[in-house]
Amino acid sequence: MNKLEARNVNVFYGPNQVIKDVSISIKKNTVTAFIGPSGCGKSTFLRLFNRMNDYIDIFKMEGRIEIDGSDIYDKQIRVEELRKQIGMVFQKPNPFPKTIYENVIYGLRIQGIKDKKILDEVVEKSLKQAALWEEVKDKLKNSALALSGGQQQRLCIARTLAVAPTVILMDEPASALDPISSAKVEELIYELKSQYTIVIVTHNMQQAGRVSDTTAFFYMGELVEHDSTKMIFTNPKNERTQNYITGRFG
Amino acid sequence: MNSSKKNRLKDNAFKYFGIGCTTFGLAMLAIFIGNILIEGFARIDWDFITNFPSRNPDKAGILPALIGTLWIMGLTAIISIPLGISAAIYLEEYGKKSRLANVLEINISNLAGVPSIIYGLLGLEIFGRIMGMGGSLLAGASTLSLLILPIIIVSTREALKAVPKSIKEASFAMGASKWQTISYQLLPASFGGIITGIILALSRAVGETAPLIVIGALAYVPFVPSSPTDEFSVLPIQIFNWISRPQKGFAINAASAIIVLLMVTFVLNGIAMYLRNKWQKKVQW
Amino acid sequence: MPRIKEKIIETGLALAAVVTVLTTIGIIWVLFSQTIDFFSEVSIVDFLTDTQWTPLFADKHFGILPLVAGTFLTTTIAIIVALPIGLTIAVYLNEYAPKSFRKIVKPLLEILAAVPTVVYGFFALSVVTPFLQNIIPGMAGFNALSAGIVMGIMIIPLITSLSEDALFAVPKSLREASYGMGSTRLQTAFKVMVPAASSGIIVSVILGISRAVGETMIVAIAAGQQPRLTLNPLVPIETITTYIVQVSTGDVAHGSLEYRTIFAAGMALFVFTFILNNISYWVKKKFQEKYE
């Protein structure tokens, strides 16, 4: 069974249709990259999976999106529960203005977990998973805002991992970072693949090529092509994909 | 999960608490206006507007107070507007980052927080006694002008700030001097914002009571002031005076005068809101 | 020639700006000179420690404490009313309310803020006091409670709008991060947004306190004119501001000791609000640095 499944999804912002009849299947424990020019709807589409578009007043959706076979837009679904299953890492690092430690355990705090032993364990485990432990283990009580941009982003990833999601959505997670930090985040994505299903929106073609198993190309709100990354980059079926990959527009 | 259910419950509870608090605030406004209308509306007629105050509540009117309020509003506008706009232009366009500007800035933010009654003490000594104006309209308007000056300066600066840099640069690039750029470009472009701030500041001045009481404005004025050196009363002081009396008839008079005062302030605020919306819509840089 | 004209204009504008400094100097000079004259006749120790304030009676006492107590009492009641309600409305408008609702409520709150204070005083005396007297038998017609409550209602819009601005200024990414981890709106509001906006909210509260301390007409109308050293909210009291109004509405000769008492009282008031305003200015400056 597919981990994530979207069927005939249309999205409107007021009178504008921004997603046009998109269907896509995403397999468990894979990395899927969404690529395409700015304004093609790839970020909007990504945010459908954890219902972050719900906060936009003029947002309207048609179609069906499933995780593990169940409809995430069902009225019975508790959106807070859904988001514990589907974590998200944002474009700009957005740590809370609190300590590193407090940032990582935020998700557990809001679930009411107070046991210090559990919290300590989760902090260490998550930071290790996010490849940040060695750099911050002696300053967990320092403000997260004192970290560098790249460290902040890995902290945000650790914060997401701490809630033990099964899916991680990443919205251009490395676009605000320098090349070295960016490489570290990519490495991390590669390692996380064994345990998580990852969907990543990226502007950076090389990055998509390096980290993803499959790639979906969006253009003007439509899903033009979705295939293995290798196929998309070496032998795209669609001419628009070809043009984009080779840099003729975008 | 159990804790999750509890969280949802709390979330919803707070939502209704929030609605409750907002409703409370709005209900107070409604009770407020409703009560005053019920008590005072019947008393308002042409006689009430054109009569002088009297010992007999049924014959008492607000004419001197109303005219006094209009005088105060006009004189305060004449004094405070040029001062306020000039000071704002200086701070925003000339004095930036100089030490003087820094001092001025802290000073203005401090002045904005000084209680109005302290301005009354200032006016009493400086305008009333040292400059010999006594309890005249001019002393009152001067005091209120100083009181609302910080408001005018802050709002004018906001309006000037909202003008995009490109306009200023374009004007300089054409060879315009600083003052030409300000008077031909910046002031017209920020006019809406400036006028809105001024109206709001004047509406504040119209409602002020305490500083005018302190400088010695009269509660009982049996004449209509006809020059800036005349003594005077204003609506809020007339209202205060009537509230302080034990007879029921004067409480009704107070409610009626409040209706008139609220009409003046609401009309001023309404104009300001209208201008602000219109201006915001028109100017989309 | 044009250069001279530019210079003249600049000087003129600068002079206008200097008026604000002269105002401050004027306030300080007036208060100081009168207060010094006052203390040449009244001992400063008595002023600060005597528990009676009776300058207008034959047996004169000049202890500021009863007036300070009255001011403290009404201010405390006002903040107890205004802080929870004002902050709740701000959070509600920011996190929960639909945009259309916000658009209606904000101007209405602005109207609440534009109502002259003498009108609030009338409201306290003719609506709130009779209402409370039904609930609390034996409450005096003039009392700190209804004046304080109404003052609180007056301050709600101030706290709401400043807190709302502070909440609004918190980067949207923080809210998204919190929602992204499965927080409810309440958790997002109080675990992320309010802490991040805390300095702005503190500023709103300090300015609210400062406003309540300096508020005159509501207390002059509804709280009474009887200086007494008490924390009982049900009896008539007198605040610093009310005393100044009381003297100003009577006949007190320029230069007399009674005349100077209002400047001494004004000095006390000025010192309180000056400290509060400077704390808030300092907090605000720190806050700006954090986010820029």
Order of helices and strands of chain A: EEEHEEHEHHHHEHEHEEHH
Q: Write down the Rg of chain B.
A: 23 Å
Envelope shape of chain A: globular
Strand content of chain A: 25-35%
How do you describe this structure in short?
The complex is a heterotrimer of chains A (250), B (285) and C (292). Chain A contains ten helices and ten strands. Chain A has 250 residues and is α/β, with parallel strands linked by helices.
Search tags:
heterotrimer, A: 250 residues, alpha/beta, Rossmann fold, four-stranded antiparallel β-sheet, 10 helices, globular, B: 285 residues, mainly alpha, MetI-like fold, 2 domains, 11 helices
Q: How would you describe the overall organization of this protein?
A:
The complex is a heterotrimer of chains A (250), B (285) and C (292). With 250 residues, chain A is of the alpha/beta class. Chain A has a single domain (4-245), classed as Rossmann fold. Chain A is built from ten helices and ten strands. Chain A has helices at residues 42-48, 79-85, 100-110, 116-129, 133-136, 149-162, 179-192, 205-211, 229-234, 239-245; strands spanning 4-13, 16-26, 31-35, 59-67, 70-71, 86-89, 167-171, 197-201, 214-219, 222-228. In chain A, strands 6-7-8-3-9-10 form a six-stranded mixed sheet, sandwiched between helices. In chain A, strands 2-1-4-5 form a four-stranded antiparallel sheet, with helices on one face. The radius of gyration of chain A is 18 Å and the shape is globular. Chain A starts with a strand and ends in a 5-residue tail after the last helix. By secondary structure, chain B is mostly helical. In chain B, helix 8 runs antiparallel to helix 11. By secondary structure, chain C is mainly alpha-helical. Chains in contact: A-B, A-C, B-C. At the B-C interface, helix 1, helix 3, helix 4, helix 5 and helix 6 of B face helix 1, helix 3, helix 4, helix 5 and helix 6 of C.
